[in-house]
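pinging the channel bc i need a second pair of eyes. not urgent but kinda urgent?? the chain im working w is below, pasted from the shared doc
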Amino acid sequence: MAGYGVANERLRVLEELEREIGASLQSAGTVILELSKEKAGERLLERQAAQFSAAIQKVESELSAQIRYLTQVATGQPHEGSSYSARKACQMALNRVDYARLKLGELARACEQMLEP
């Protein structure tokens, strides 16, 4: 059940990122609205621009972390909360067993043919 905790935490982070993106869009909208005025408030512009920049940096950083995590999952590298790597290793072992069984059958047939007069 630990996998659900990791998945829930990942979803929570993504929801937080969604809120952060909304806030950054709001900051950008405020900057655009302020720039459309004849007398733009320089302090407000600077504050909103700084908020926008910080939000974008946070979103970029968190999305990069999410992508790194998904890359680990997709490549089968071990990571906490997933059984993908173990399932992949098991499937590969079963494939090797099937292949060995096939080759042993071929060897047995070849030996029987050599022993027949």
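so The mean pLDDT is 82. and The first helix runs from residue 2 to 35. — does that match what u expected or am i reading it wrong
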